[in-house]
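Fold tokens
===========
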Amino acid sequence: MEKRFFLALLLTGAVVVLTPMVFPRPRSNAPITVVDSAVAAAAAVAAAQPAPRDGAPAAAMSSGKGAIASPALAAAPPGQAAETLVVRTALSAYTFSGLGAAPLQVQADSFPALNGTKGRVVLRHGREPLLRFRVVMAGDTIPLDQMVFAAAKARGSDGAPQVTFTASRGVTSVTIVYRFTPDNYVATTNVQVTGLSGPAFLLVDLPTGFDTQEADSLDDIRHLSYAVKPLAQGARGIPFTKLDEGESTLEPGPLSWAVAKNKYFLVGMLAPTGGKPFAEAHIVGGARTRKLATRGAATVVLALDNGKAAFELYAGPQSWERLHKIGREFETANPYGGFMQPVVQPFATIVMRVLLWMKKTVRLDYGFVLVIFGVVVRLLLWPLNQSAMRTSIRMQRIQPELQEIQGKYKSDPQKQQAEIMRVYKEHGMSPFSAFSGCLPMLIPMPVLFALFFVFQNTIEFRGVPFLWLQDISMHDPLYALPLLMGASAFALSWIGMRNSPPNPQAKMMSYIFPVMMTFIFLNQAAGLNLYYAVQNLAALPQQWLIANERARSQKKG
């Protein structure tokens, strides 16, 4: 029991310590050190030159300082009017500006805004375009966002809508074509630039942020982030909160994709399947508002091959199933777990697959799916729990004999060890059996951790009601579920203490642990509290049976 107590105490301390590390509060303002986002372009140009003699990376050859260029929509040149046009698909409405051939906003028709406006979710950031284009070559930069393009809408051979933008400056001509996928949030984007001299690169600026349209706007802002996927590595998230104002980071290529996202939606670029990956991405921390990181800057660098570059634009929900179908591990555009990502991400994937399958199978709301999921997980663990708890009972039964041996052979450690092993062998046990009683507590933890992160920004739970709850992805306004979770945890501990040998430390933990868990989960997603409470309630019958079995064992002893 002593070993179980100290292991439980260790786990409790880990939860207390790790929670603020995994979910840190936004940093306070720091001194401004601004690095121009165009440095990425210089790095890309440098990469095309011979490597320095000392073998340093080509990207390291570039450096510079200056103000971050504001991506606000520029004014059209005098005498030229920029056209605005709307392209509709079955799922979205894209609004483009002829100034810079840029998407200004994307309306996701299937998702209502939850901030009280009674409209649809619109991906935008004030008057800024969602993307900005620039072409960089040795000694010259062509700011496409300051050029007025002529637009032409058409239909492809498959009937899908497309829009073509054309413009020229001197001997340079630019054509940007967006081809839309009717039943998805993807637009294939092709850029062609003629009249270039020498190696050139296309720079694409991602959104600097998003207007919040969630019921909890503060939580939405705290989820603002960029993410990139190196070709041969896992995805990496760069939250706005992790970068001080002006702090820059270079994400070296080749990259499969790069995205900007808030809690539930994202705007991202994917390298075409089988096509040329992105050269690199340069990310800079933006200004803060009341200590909140509300802005960032991210530039993706694409090498122009004979003046051509292509990428797929995704502007829509972070729907796991939809992102998974796109391939290229795009479902990891929302990397889970922070520094625990290598452990949490696989379990999060399993949990998402199971929940989506259950939703399709039982055809119930996600609140009921979580109830069923909690009961099923507990039933699957029933045999293991049963075995571990019975092992714990057997350990309690042989404790007097082990203590007697420890006292009898106190001066002869070798003999003491041999006698202890003999006792273990006679009862069909081993020294490791003492830890098996902790398995029921340890094994469900990966699922709980996965759900902890999944509930942070899984759009499948967004706005889903259940009983008195308006949204299971938000905290319970009545705090009924956290209290039920804490009460059920206490009941589980209390029943587990019945017919056990007196242990002041374990008794103290039976009071502290439920209170601590209630405090931690108080403002967590209601669905997470629901799952954990169901887990506890489903475990009560087994705990009661084991307590009775322990009483019968004591009578026989």
Residues 39 and 63 are 7 Å apart (CA to CA). The first helix runs from residue 2 to 22. The chain has two domains: 2-20+362-556, 31-67+81-326. The two ends are 18 Å apart (CA to CA).
